[in-house]
Design brief:
This protein is an alpha+beta fold. The protein contains 6 helices and 7 strands, in the order H-H-H-E-H-E-E-H-E-E-H-E-E. A hairpin with a 6-residue loop joins strand 4 and strand 5.
Length: 269
């Protein structure tokens, strides 16, 4: 009887120790994840501080030059125009950074709203290109092709569709020094869907990073500016519109191809 009781006690102790070890492991894992999250947030805030200061310094510096009448009189019309473009470019960049922060905040709090209406596919693409094209390096040709007629429309939020395409184009500009950036609209690549794709001849993305780059605060590299939120926002918008965003892993040419699929009639999620 005593030996049986001893065996039971030992078994219970072993089970208890096993449970304690498991709970300790889970607690340590959660602690490690928490520490990793703190490090990610710290790095994000450091990058954010740098990314905000850079355009602000450019805006302030060149504005001071143009506002100083004595210095301005020493500049040629070409230089004045060039400085104006720099100010506009950095203003747009700063606005994008702020918009990204506000968008991700609204999405997390449930305040992000879509305004579904008539969306002209080709129009939103042209608007996106006209907004981003001036940022292209001189050796990069940005252009658009489409399978859709100019009268072709879908049920969606035009502003959000344009935002996804603009983010794709902006990423392509950051990582393409020469060659081309090609925006294409296909009505046949994915049946029942409109497929927007942006292909570039830049540095490309490693296949093992295909999903990582769509996570928050993740960036292609730490050299180029940005919050690391753009692609995450693209995915969240696409999901709400009933579509998806992804890196085309079947693209074998130089560079990368990003794809945004959108149902003909958006279904809110």
């Amino acid at each position: 009887m005593w030996s049986t009781l001893s065996i039971i006690v030992i078994v219970v102790l072993v089970i208890a120790l096993g449970v304690m070890a498991y709970l300790y492991h889970k607690k340590k894992e959660q602690c490690d994840k928490y520490k990793q999250g703190i490090l990610v947030q710290k790095g994000y805030l450091q990058n954010m501080s740098h990314d905000i200061r850079t355009p602000m310094n450019a805006i302030c510096g060149f504005s001071q030059i143009l506002c100083n009448s004595q210095v301005r009189n020493m500049l040629s019309e070409e230089e004045i125009s060039e400085y104006g473009v720099i100010i506009q470019s950095n203003t747009d960049l700063l606005s994008t950074l702020v918009d990204d922060i506000l968008d991700i905040s609204d999405m997390e709090s449930g305040k992000y709203r879509l305004n579904i209406g008539v969306c002209n596919v080709n129009d939103v693409c042209r608007k996106a290109i006209s907004t981003v094209k001036f940022r292209c390096p001189d050796k990069v040709n940005m252009y658009m092709t489409t399978d859709a007629a100019d009268t072709y429309t879908i049920k969606s939020d035009p502003k959000r569709v344009e935002q996804v395409i603009m983010n794709f184009l902006t990423n392509a500009v950051k990582h393409t020094d020469e060659g081309e950036i090609h925006l294409h609209v296909s009505l046949t690549e994915n049946p029942g869907m409109v497929t927007f794709s942006v292909a570039d001849t830049g540095e490309g993305v490693a296949p093992d990073k295909a999903e990582v780059i769509f996570k928050r605060f993740e960036k292609f590299n730490t050299i180029n500016g940005g919050t690391g939120l753009g692609l995450a926002i693209c995915r969240m918008i696409a999901t709400q519109l009933g579509g998806e965003t992804k890196l085309d892993l079947n693209y074998k040419k130089q560079g990368a191809r990003f794809v945004f699929t959108h149902p003909v009639d958006a279904e809110l999620r």
